[in-house]
């Protein structure tokens, strides 16, 4: 299957899943129209909300080679009540956003490596859009894993979460962490259609991990710039860490992720870990 055909299939599946997740009652539809055998809105209802023909929606959901215009994509995003992340994903699938022209970052910018050290004692690392870990400071390695001991191909935070025998057991709310990571990767996959390494990585995860395959099929899309993770660290005990993700203007393909303890107990536990 060509990449164009693959994106058409994904566009079709994404439109169907978003339509089926909508609650007809929230659209003020007449009661007589709410006795339905399938979940969500009907195609004709989406067509009416978006101001397009029913046949057009049918052809899109059947991946019949259409490339919707910017205006149609905008109308569909509104009709389906997409989140900002989902809307951007739809624009990428429809190839109506400028493609990323720069090659994916595979090495860390020297100035950002120095910044990682300056951020100590805050655990911090540098990643690219596919979650490859390009650089890190000592505190980050102490908190998570000694990245230097891993082959470069395995210095990937999603791989660590899914496959690393120690790291995969860290997170108390494991499914949420994996789900959020997948939602980011799906957005990255659409925004970087020529990144064969990312496509191969997703194929590896889908075929090798049932949890990843199940959550990937749900087609959630979200770029997470901040949040928190609760870890049961084998040495420090319970750690609740907040994180913030920054994109440098000079190197937008590199993401700086900075962690902070979210409460006094976690800060004390982190201090003990880093002092050890």
UniProtKB/TrEMBL annotation:
Record domain HTH cro/C1-type: where: 33-87
InterPro entries linked to this entry: Cro/C1-type_HTH (IPR001387), Lambda_DNA-bd_dom_sf (IPR010982), MLTR_LBD (IPR041413)
Single annotated GO MF: DNA binding
Pfam families, A to Z: HTH_31 (PF13560), MLTR_LBD (PF17765)
Protein known as: Transcriptional regulator with XRE-family HTH domain
């Amino acid at each position: 299957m060509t990449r164009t055909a693959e994106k058409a299939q994904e566009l079709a599946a994404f439109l169907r899943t978003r339509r089926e997740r909508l609650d007809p009652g929230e659209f003020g539809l007449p009661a007589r129209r709410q006795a339905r055998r399938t979940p969500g809105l009907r195609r004709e209802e989406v067509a009416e909300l978006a101001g397009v023909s029913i046949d057009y929606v049918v052809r899109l959901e059947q991946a019949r080679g259409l490339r919707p215009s910017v205006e149609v994509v905008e109308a569909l995003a509104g009709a389906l009540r997409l989140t900002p992340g989902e809307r951007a994903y739809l624009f990428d699938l429809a190839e109506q956003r400028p493609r990323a022209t720069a090659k994916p970052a595979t090495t860390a910018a020297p100035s950002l490596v120095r910044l990682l050290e300056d951020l100590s004692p805050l655990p911090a690392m540098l990643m690219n859009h596919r979650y490859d870990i390009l650089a890190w400071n000592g505190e980050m390695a102490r908190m998570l894993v000694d990245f230097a001991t891993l082959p470069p191909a395995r210095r990937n935070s999603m791989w660590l979460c899914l496959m690393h025998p120690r790291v995969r057991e860290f997170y108390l709310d494991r499914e949420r962490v994996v789900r959020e990571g997948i939602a980011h990767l799906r957005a990255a996959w659409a925004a970087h259609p020529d990144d064969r390494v990312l496509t191969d990585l997703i194929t590896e995860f889908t075929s090798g991990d049932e949890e990843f395959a199940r959550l990937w099929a749900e087609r959630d899309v979200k770029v997470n710039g901040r949040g928190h993770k609760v870890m049961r660290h084998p040495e420090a005990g319970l750690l609740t860490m907040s994180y913030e993700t920054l994109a440098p203007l000079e190197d937008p393909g590199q993401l700086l992720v900075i962690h902070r303890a979210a409460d006094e107990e976690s800060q004390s536990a982190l201090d003990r870990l880093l002092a050890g």
